[in-house]
Amino acid sequence: MQNQSLYKTALPFMTQLRDKFSETVGLAVLDLAVPDGIIIGQVQGTQRFSFRLAVNQHFPVHTGAPGKAIAAFLQQKQQNAIVSRMKFTRFNERTIITRKAYLQELARIHKRGYATDVAEEVEGCHCVSAPVFNKDKTPLAAIWVTGPSNRFPVKEFESIAAIVINAAANITRSLENKPGDGTDFISHIIEEARLYIHEHLDEDFDMEQLAKELNVGYTSFRHWFKAAHGMGPAHYHLQQRIDAAKKLLRHSKQTVASICRTLGYEDQNYFSALFKKKTGRSPLSYRNRK
Predict the structure, then answer these.
(1) What SS3 state is found at 129?
(2) CA dihedral sign, ordered 171, 177, 178, 179
(3) Model confidence at 6: pLDDT above 50
(4) 288 band by pLDDT with thresholds 50, 70 and 90
(5) What angle do CA 29, 31, 33 make, to 5 degrees?
(6) Nearest-CA neighbor of 185 among 151, 219, 153, 215?
(7) What gap in Å lies between CA 14 and CA 125, rounded to an integer?
(8) pLDDT classification of 184: cutoffs 50, 70, 90
């Protein structure tokens, strides 16, 4: 019953994806006990030749894009428990056949926000998938588009993934029973990141780790942030530190050394050189300008 409700919520967005690509779109969950992926719904492609997904059919988690998309965003303990019980059956030369290689692939998926299947089980079948989350940001399911390799070449995966990720975000938002077309979900992620950056101007921190804390892939996070603010999150963080330094130089009596420490820079010379690079003036010259 829960899977039927999930499929009903996802269906409009799956249909939109199918209409966008004219290829088959699927929805899957993980059976953690096996572990296997389970197809819970599909929207058939409209091409003269398109793949047909068998609902309720199980598929291997080490090859299927939706299985990898879900596994990549599980909590570490749960992820390790699943991977330790997996059988890495070889289907062809592209199949991942070791735990080490699989965990490395999951790390890449978590970073970029989407998973792929490059004919790792079925010859000529390419897939691009993104996870759907529940309210506590735990991966609940995955949506994916599947098509023949000649219509879904690897070189187009990234552009396809951006659309699939957005569809997954739309489903996540709908599951939260809040109005919106999915952009609210993205806006929420970006606003959380912006607030975090402003609250930690005196710290150097890893933007990939921030994306991980927000439970989104770094590639998608950076793309969304740049679209919202005209620059990536690392550049934004730097710019806010420079802007804060400008305000302190204009409106406070703090020394340059004190401002340097306030903003978390240990090396005053480095800070001064960086400030001049970004503003065209040294900190003292900026303060003394008329």
Answers:
(1) strand
(2) positive
(3) yes
(4) confident
(5) 160
(6) 215
(7) 19
(8) low
Using one digit for the tens of pLDDT, what is the confidence trace for 216-266?
778 878 888 888 889 999 999 999 999 999 999 988 989 999 999 999 999
Interatomic CA distance for residues 77 and 112, integer angstroms = 21
How far is residue 248 CA from its own chain's centroid?
36
Residue 180 has pLDDT above 50, yes or no: no
Q: What one-letter code names the amino acid at 35?
A: P
Walk me through the domains of the chain, giving residue ranges and CATH numbers: 2-175 (3.30.450.40), 182-290 (1.10.10.60)
- In 83-193 the beta strands, taken as DSSP E runs, fall at 115-118, 125-133, 139-148
Choose among 148, 189, 176: nearest CA to 21.
148
Place of tokens 């480095």: 270
DSSP class per residue in 80-104: HHHHHT------STTS--SHHHHHH
